[in-house]
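#onboarding

Welcome to the new folks! Below is a worked example of what a typical request in this channel looks like: someone posts a single protein sequence, and someone else replies with the predicted structure as tokens. Don't worry about understanding the tokens yet, we'll cover that in week two.

Example request:
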Amino acid sequence: MNHSRASVSRIPENQSADVTFILLGFSEYPDLQVPLFLVFLTIYTVTVLGNLGMIIIIRMNPKLHTPMYFFLSHLSFVDFCYSTAVTPKLLENLFVKDRTISFIGCIMQFSFACIFVETETFMLAVMAYDRFVAVCNPLLYTVVMSQRLSSLLVGASYSWSIVCSLTFTSFLLTSTFHGTNFINNFFCEYAAIVAISCSDTYISQEITLVFATFNEISTLVIILTSYVLIFITVMKMPSRGGRHKAFSTCASHLTSITIFHGTIIFLYCVPNSKSSQLVSKVASVFYTVVIPMLNPLIYSFRNKEVKETIRKLINTKLLSYK
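Example response:
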């Protein structure tokens, strides 16, 4: 009883400006700070140009005003947002010696990154369902995937992600921290923040595990079910050309899913030991920094409509300069 009263009395200290965090990042490799800064700056530049460019291209071309590209534009927006929530601070910490971040700044970074990462998880599942309808029920595609349903699916993805983020953030806000705390990561990741808390985090960790497991399993079930049915439908097609066309419409999405979920599963299957900390950091870099850059490249290189729009834009600019 006395212990619980003491814990409650310490909760308000969290709101103090004296609580700060230091993001250790890759500080144990001083010789790599400049090369890493240049690499991450290049990646972030490509991420911003690629994702914003994809959104602009989809908006400009009337042929791309379909549910598939509507979801893709939101995927690009989400990629841009969660990369922007993480990468600028990563670049700053590689460039300056002072790697501190305020309590509120850390919580806000985690909250925004959580919203957009979770949204991407569900957006990829929504896109799998979209491909299922397109391949298995092509004649009913425009009826089933109406603008209303598409907007509802996207809205639900954002809404549930906000609920998850608020739940996790509320646990962090009610946890106790004292003075200066070292986070052995390059951004304010939930597990890293909880690890330095002075509070009993058992309940918060269990609830977080339930949310994370539900999100991952539910989306993977939707994705796997959709693609099993797609595979069965495609294999029943009489012509080889029809099968190739059906598979090609799913190839980009399958690539994105494999990279994203493969990295997430690998990251949380890595044992919690000192030898695995570098591996965890590299995996975290991959899904927070690299994947947002890869998605627009994957979809632009494998998509005829997107490539045609890019080619027309380039030709139009070249003609305007002549």
